[in-house]
Amino acid sequence: MTNYAVILQIFLLTHSSLSVGSTGLVVAASVIIVALAGGVILDATDRRRVVLIATGIQAAVSATLAAQAFAGLGLVWLIYCLVAIQSLAGAVNASAQKTFMPNLLRREQLQAGAALQTLTMHASLTAGPALAGLITALLGLKACYIFDVASFACSLYSVARLPSMRVRGEATRPGLRAIGEGFAFISRTKVVLGALVADMSANFFGMPMALFPAINAERFGGHAETLGLLTTAVAVGGLIGSLLSGPVSRIRRQGLGIVVSGAIWGIGLIAFGLSGVFWLAFLSLTLAGAGDVSAVISRTALVQRLTPDTLRGRVSSVEYAVGAGVPQLGNFRAGVIGTLTSSTTAVISGGMAAVCGTALVSALIPALVRYPMRPAGTKETVDSGPRDIISEDTKAELPG
Fold first, then answer.
1. How many angstroms separate the Cα of 172 from the Cα of each of 36, 63, 189, 324?
2. 330 near 204, Cβ under 8 Å?
3. CB-hemisphere CA count at 13 Å for 130?
4. Cα separations (Å) of 174 from 33, 36, 313?
5. Where would I find the H helices in the chain?
């Protein structure tokens, strides 16, 4: 709801798509900062307390956004600053919450937990803007901020009811060395590296959201309803993919599933770029969304399964940056290519690049494709699978 209100308010103040699109760069920069430094905090303290503090900051920012809207300040730079603070707190919050799963679920339930996570995310992406639009129509833009501030009470209560989420083992001392340890683990754990790089490739080259208004105007009459449906289509595919996560979780070669899902995402985008009728465009984006969420579910479970608890905060921060920051950069890339060439060329070339990128990742990091997921109920050991999946020094650190 806050995202909807911010975008609408900036557009009403500037009537500039570039000004609206710049919020994506603000979000991406904030998320990348957290990926570089914020994860160290999560590995040094009680992660539940971090979530409570970050959620409180997000609520305070939403209240400030509401205050500036009611005051009628009309200061775009102030909104950008508040968005940056909100994004920083949100990135820390989301990264910390990712570390909860291994503490609350059995190892064989991680895939289902990741599916529930993506299900709630896509449900909010589908229902949130629709609810915000309804509230704006009935009560005005300012009411969106007020409702959002009130909603944080539910989040604070829910997290407060959870047990402590302290690091199992020796807590990390914050510093440059700790940051380096997180990236060193990712670089030498080829399966984790491959999963993150595959996701980066798909999102950076394929993300099409910035092109929706232009394509809607060129092909579908520029109607607000069709633009809304195009925006929702990817989230609808995400919901479908989340609900079908049961069959996906039974795929033993989980790494291969990530690669195939990334290719489906790219193929869906190519089909969208070639679609001349609306229903086919909608179905193509739905297919792309289903492929994307399948990759996210498998990636999340895989990363959480292979990361030791002492490093989980740092690795989760990087994973969040890949999943939340890189798509923002991908939208910016799509806007630039669409301006230089055409929106159709930008979508089709992005989809093709996403397919080629996943194929290249599977060729350069074969450990990802060969990674086996052991059947549910079977104890997972660090010695299972090919020797090049995990380096020997990492094996000594892994749980199980």
1. 15, 34, 20, 25
2. yes
3. 12
4. 15, 12, 12
5. 2-14, 17-33, 39-42, 47-71, 76-98, 101-104, 110-139, 141-160, 176-188, 190-206, 212-219, 224-243, 245-249, 254-274, 278-306, 312-320, 326-340, 343-364, 366-370, 392-395
22, amino acid identity: S
Q: Which two structure tokens, joined as six digits, stand for 273?
A: 């770029």
CB crowding 346-358: b at 16 or more within 10 Å, else e: bbbbbbbbbbebb
Encoded tokens for 361: 């990742």
Measuring CA to CA, how many Å separate 50 from each of 84, 221, 239, 253, 338?
18, 47, 29, 35, 40
- Residue 341 has what pLDDT? 86
> pTM to 2 decimals?
0.70
CB within 8 Å of 192: residues ≥ 6 apart? 185, 186, 302, 303, 306, 307, 315
Delineate the domains of the chain, giving CATH numbers in brackets.
2-163+173-395 (1.20.1250.20)
In eight-state DSSP terms, residue 324 is I
Structure tokens at 57: 């900051």
Q: Residue 204's closest CA among 102, 375, 304, 349?
A: 349
SS (H, E, C) 335-370: HHHHHHCCHHHHHHHHHHHHHHHHHHHHHHCHHHHH
User: pLDDT per residue over 274-312, tens digit each?
Assistant: 988 999 999 999 999 989 888 888 888 888 888 888 888
Radius of gyration of the chain (CA): 21
CB 375 within 8 A of CB 222: no
DSSP string, 4-50: HHHHHHHHHHH--HHHHHHHHHHHHHHHHHIIIIIHHHHTTS-HHHH
Helix residue ranges per DSSP H, 307-342: 312-320, 326-340
